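Protein modeling request. Please complete all fields; requests missing the sequence field cannot be processed.
Requester role: graduate student
Desired output: 3D structure, token encoding
Chains: 1
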Amino acid sequence: MDYQVTTPATTSQTTVAELKTHLLLFGDNSYDAELQGILLAAEEYISDFLGEYLVATSVRVNVVNFDDTTLPHKSASSVVVNYWDTNNAAQVYASSNYRIDVSGKYPTIKYSAQPAGKSSTSTYAGFITYTTSLDVVPQKLSRAVLLVAAELFENRNNSSEKASYATKLTAMRLVQSLRGW
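Delivered output (181 residues):
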């Protein structure tokens, strides 16, 4: 199922202090703003590979119809279902008309009724918005973020393709065992 990020993470799960320790930048605060941006990029890289977001990220999933809809992330909060009305304007669908079933690997929206007055001309019947993040970030993921962030920091200008490949390979080996868990 396709989704799009509507509000990317603005904070990182790994702290700048942890990255500075990893990079051996003790007492040097001149890179803090850059390091925060690098951490966000590293976590986004890992999240894209993993298919799950480490910190709160808002997403939108388009729905073709109002049959049961399984969400593409394991954790979903602040779920809002919307439908397109006959004027092709987005309307919030009352939460009393659906429930969120979390008994499976991924949450599923189960509808008890179809929206009245929905559009017949729109490509999608509606969309679902929610916030997702991992409840617990395994240590392997934290180490992978540090590896990728260190590579991004160390090779800001001239990146050696060989060094970059080795770092990404190590990070992906750490993450691979968790993919789809």
